[in-house]
């Protein structure tokens, strides 16, 4: 997919099988999203003193842990539809990492169509400004 991501380095642009990009502590194996970058590189696991991390592609599938309806217009830099239309936000527990990642649900899926425990998959979707972001979709 030839596109500009809404957030550089947060996800791959593979239209068929996109992945979120995270970090994994080399000492304890704890996963993080978004990636640990910059000067302050330390493991946030209180039982670990690790300071080295690998960039990893996180699971692109998981189970719906929770969800809500976004009834408000989000602030910039989020690119929202104008006029604002409510949309669903999903908290998905990634299959392998067992961590929760929040994200919007694809256009056309409302909270009435979601159910805790249902299988979800990561997809890419274009925003109004033409940039691409990740979203969750029922699998």
Brief overview:
This protein is an all-beta fold. It has a domain at 61-138. The chain has strands at 21-25, 31-32, 53-57, 61-70, 87-94, 100-104, 119-126, 132-138.
Lay out the secondary structure.
Blueprint: E1 21-25, E2 31-32, E3 53-57, E4 61-70, E5 87-94, E6 100-104, E7 119-126, E8 132-138
Antiparallel strand pairs: 1-2, 1-3, 4-5, 4-7, 5-6, 7-8
Verbal overview:
The protein is mostly beta strands and about 140 residues long. It has a domain at about 60-139. It has strands at about 20-25, 30, 55, 60-70, 85-95, 100-105, 120-125, 130-139. A hairpin with a 5-residue loop joins strand 7 and strand 8 (about 130-139). The model has no long low-confidence stretch (mean pLDDT about 90).
As residue ranges, the low-confidence spans are none
Number of helices: 0
Spatial order of the strands forming the largest sheet: 6-5-4-7-8
Report the helical percentage.
Answer: under 10%
Ends distance: 21 Å
Largest sheet: 5 strands, antiparallel
Structural class: mainly beta
Number of strands: 8
Strand content: 35-45%
Shape annotation:
globular
């Amino acid at each position: 997919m030839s596109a500009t991501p809404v957030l550089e380095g947060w996800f791959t642009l593979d239209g068929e099988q996109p992945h979120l990009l995270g970090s994994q502590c080399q000492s304890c194996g704890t996963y993080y999203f978004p990636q640990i970058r910059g000067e302050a590189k330390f493991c946030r696991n209180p039982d670990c003193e690790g300071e080295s991390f690998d960039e990893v592609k996180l699971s692109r599938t998981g189970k719906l842990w929770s969800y809500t309806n976004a009834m408000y217009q989000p602030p910039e830099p989020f690119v929202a539809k104008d006029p604002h239309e409510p949309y669903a936000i999903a908290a998905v527990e990634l299959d392998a990492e067992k961590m929760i990642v929040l994200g919007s649900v694809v256009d056309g899926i409302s909270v009435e169509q979601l159910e805790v425990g249902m299988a979800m998959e990561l997809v890419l979707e274009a925003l109004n400004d033409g940039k691409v972001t990740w979203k969750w979709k029922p699998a």
